[in-house]
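Entry for the shared binder. Reason: the reviewer on the internal report wants the predicted structure included alongside the sequence.
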Amino acid sequence: MTRLVMMLVLLLASLWLSLMAGAVWYGPSTVGHALLSASPTDVQGLVIRTTRVPRTLVALVAGACLAVAGGVMQTLTRNPLASPGLLGVNAGALFVMVMLVSLWPGAGVSLWYGGAFAGAALAALLVWAVAMRGQASGGPLKLVLAGAAITALFTSFSQAMLVIDQQGLDTVLFWLAGSVAGRPLAEVTPLMGVALVALFACRPLARSMNVLAAGEAIARGVGVGVARLQLLMVVLVILLAGSSVAMAGNIAFVGLIVPHIARRLLPVDHRIWLAGCALMGATLLLLADVIGRTVILPREIPIGVMTALIGAPLFITLVRRQGGGHGRA
């Protein structure tokens, strides 16, 4: 519990730093005044409230959801190197966004967000349907194989459409690189609502996930409805990762790395572990955004690039330590 408190303190510090950092740095008192006062003549406060607060909240929610979605996926597949991408979430979201941009270029950004979420859900449901076809439980291996196949299918469709429509490629580049900037709160608030509901919905399932992590046979032996639980976990991943991808685009490694690190720092009790994943994921994305927007001023590095730069070396380290074996969730 002490480590959870320390993670919470680090998250709050990162959140405050995100509001201070940028092309122009503001002091803590300036940030506090901007949050407490809504004066229309206060230029600094207006910048903080309309630009930095939205991107901070998007990074906060998206980071927490991606990390928790990764934790749920690793339990579902009983593989500590699993991530939400195994369900085709990113590929499905990209496909629908590309289709909307190509066929309906006049559509608003809010429709793109909704389309990305719908595409993520569609891909994940297709993966689940294929994995479960023909038997009561397809098992983790079949889920991974189905995810790889559906991901390849949607990725191929998206690439084909982008080759034909160069203007569409230019339009969706912001999503491909991953970004939390330029997201008006009015447009992403519904997605944040879905994400927060899904985060809190993980709590009632935590005990059952603890049992499932020990194996399907043991879970069935103590009366857990494995197929129902697995379906609920897939739905949670869809809601968590789908809303995050729709808000912030293609952000890699958060759902892969954070749960594994949290497993080393916290007890593998899902009531504690998933809470730690949420705190660490939000902190990681906030710090990645701060570094990305300050390291090469006046330009910014997309947050998806920053998480890849941070996550790739960690992932290589994890693979080397894993030694090709199967980890525990």
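Summary line for the report: Confidence is low (pLDDT under 50) at residues 324-329.
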